[in-house]
Amino acid sequence: MAKNSKIYRNILVIEDNHAILDVITLILQSEAYKVAGLNKSENMMEHIQSFNPDLMILDIMLPDGDGRDLLTQIRTNPKTAKIPVLMISAKYTAETIQHGTHRPNGFLAKPFDIDDLLDKIEGILAGKTY
């Protein structure tokens, strides 16, 4: 396959701040990703099944749940356990997000730099962990 040909990847973003969700969605769509956004965790597993994401961006502080508990839910389900997850948070740091035994593939503190976001997404999709 040619190195420059773009593979369309699905990214599911769960972020309760509409402005941040909109910005992430626009940026990723401009990079030729297919994006689905949720502003709460309700029905997350159904969305994962129907959208089949190649990567998830998951906020930790959601109005109806803790992103770290959602990560555990994703990791303990055989159908979703292999989906890479990039966690984002304004409150937590890479050192303080640890919660249970499951780790995300990467972490990004808000506010974040657009280039950092894209670099981490591309890295995680290529198999890296941050």
Automatic annotation (TrEMBL):
Q: What are the Response regulatory domain coordinates in residue numbering?
A: 10-125
| Cited PROSITE patterns | RESPONSE_REGULATORY
GO-annotated biological processes: phosphorelay signal transduction system
* Pfam families given in the database record: Response_reg
* 4-aspartylphosphate found at: D59
Q: Cite the InterPro entries for this sequence.
A: Bact_response_regulator (IPR050595), CheY-like_superfamily (IPR011006), Sig_transdc_resp-reg_receiver (IPR001789)
Could you name the domain of life of the organism this protein comes from?
Bacteria
Ordered alphabetically, the record's keywords are:
Phosphoprotein
Is Phosphoprotein set as a keyword in this record? yes
- Whether Phosphoprotein counts among this entry's keywords is yes
Protein name, as recorded: Response regulator
Q: What is the lineage of its organism?
A: Bacteria, Pseudomonadati, Bacteroidota, Sphingobacteriia, Sphingobacteriales
